[in-house]
Design goal:
The chain has 83 residues and is of the alpha+beta class. The chain has a domain of 58 residues. Helices cover 35% and strands 18% of the residues. The chain has a three-stranded antiparallel beta sheet with strand order 2-1-3, with helices on both faces. Strand 1 and strand 2 form a beta hairpin.
Amino acid sequence: MALEKELETYKSKLPELLANEGEGKFALIHADQLVDVFGTYEDAIKDGYARFKLEPFLVKQIESIENIHFVSRLLTCPISLAK
């Protein structure tokens, strides 16, 4: 799975992040390292690309309860493409 190590790092650092940073900020994680914490997603993602280029990194919002978002792959096309 992609970003498995980064997600494990986030989970292990979460209590520390909540205690020191509070909820709502964004953690930048590369491999097993918490790189920095940012006030906005945009700042975190910009710094991640500047530091790591195309190497995998994770930007995750610090939350005590993670919100789950569902995205459906079921797409229907109302117009027939057959001619």
